[in-house]
């Protein structure tokens, strides 16, 4: 049984990523709002654009704390943020959805999301993803590292120096692999399952623009930041 050991610098890296991840939480709690009241499709759409706008700002702050990120080519930094913003939003949404809640609250939250204005055809892939994330029972460190790994995906559109991004992502993957082995010793395939979620996340990327434009309302308004990041309007 080979001894898995997280080195001192890997521990420092994990602490930086976790602190950044916790420091940059979403200000209001969208789940609490959704559990409180039933909103119209228009109000839900507005809530989504507000939450997503603040999440992008939070994502930028988190990303700036990823060691090495600010040393990347500046245009590549933008390409990585733009390329991962939707996936980071769904990853965060999944974490919000699968958070431990009082009995019956998750069912109410799911019902509210199902009636929020999103077209029916996207419900299955979206909730399948949320539930598969929930089944992993990730610890905070794993969630933070998985978000950093998603951002540091070398093959995003317009990334010039893919090797520089690969090197950063690899060091995150190595820490996550060791962490999974230590946190889930009975589940040797746990790390592979985690990475499998990133593949599922990419499929949600393709649905996203259509989910927005098919939201049951006319005249979908977006913030300037979302127009930049989401390729809409
Ligand atoms: O606000 C939200 N998500 C935010 C985003 C930023 C990071 C925190 C979560 C929205 C809700 C907005 C209001 C109508 C109900 C969905 N949401 C979605 C979601 C996100 C995007 C789309 C289309 O692209 C469809 C659904 N999944 C959720 C799972 C749990 C709790 C909220 C969730």
Number of H/I helices: 10
Ligands bound here? Answer: the ligand O=C(NC1CCCCC1)[C@H](C1CCCCC1)n1c(-c2ccc(CO)cc2)nc2ccccc21
Low-pLDDT residue spans = none
Overall SS class: mainly alpha
Q: What value does the average pLDDT take?
A: 93
The percentage helix is: 55-70%
Radius of gyration: 18 Å
Tell me the strand percentage band.
under 5%
Number of strands: 0
Shape: globular
Major β-sheet annotation: none
Layout of secondary structure:
Blueprint: H1 8-23, H2 30-36, H3 41-64, H4 74-97, H5 105-114, H6 123-134, H7 140-151, H8 162-183, H9 190-213, H10 224-230
Helix pairs in contact: 1-7, 3-4, 4-6, 4-7, 4-9, 6-9, 7-8
The protein binds the ligand O=C(NC1CCCCC1)[C@H](C1CCCCC1)n1c(-c2ccc(CO)cc2)nc2ccccc21.
């Amino acid at each position: 049984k080979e001894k898995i050991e997280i080195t001192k610098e890997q521990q420092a890296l994990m602490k930086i990523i976790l602190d950044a991840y916790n420091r940059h939480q979403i200000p209001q709690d969208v789940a609490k709002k959704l559990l409180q009241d039933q909103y119209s499709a228009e109000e839900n759409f507005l809530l989504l654009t507000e939450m997503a706008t603040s999440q992008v700002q939070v994502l930028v702050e988190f990303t700036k704390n990823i060691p090495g990120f600010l040393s990347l080519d500046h245009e590549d930094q933008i390409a990585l943020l733009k390329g991962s913003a939707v996936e980071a939003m769904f990853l965060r949404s999944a974490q919000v959805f699968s958070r431990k809640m009082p009995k019956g609250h998750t069912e109410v939250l799911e019902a509210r999301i199902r009636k929020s204005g999103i077209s029916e055809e996207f419900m299955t892939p979206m909730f399948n993803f949320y539930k598969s994330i929930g089944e992993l029972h990730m610890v905070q460190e794993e969630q933070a590292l998985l978000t950093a790994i998603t951002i540091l995906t070398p093959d995003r559109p317009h990334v010039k120096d893919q090797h520089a991004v690969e090197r950063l992502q690899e060091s995150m993957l190595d820490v996550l692999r060791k962490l999974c082995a230590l946190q889930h010793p009975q589940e040797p395939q746990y790390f592979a399952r985690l990475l499998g979620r990133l593949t599922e996340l990419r499929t949600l990327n393709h649905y996203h623009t259509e989910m927005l434009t098919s939201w049951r309302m006319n005249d979908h308004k977006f913030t300037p930041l979302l127009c930049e990041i989401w390729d809409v309007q």
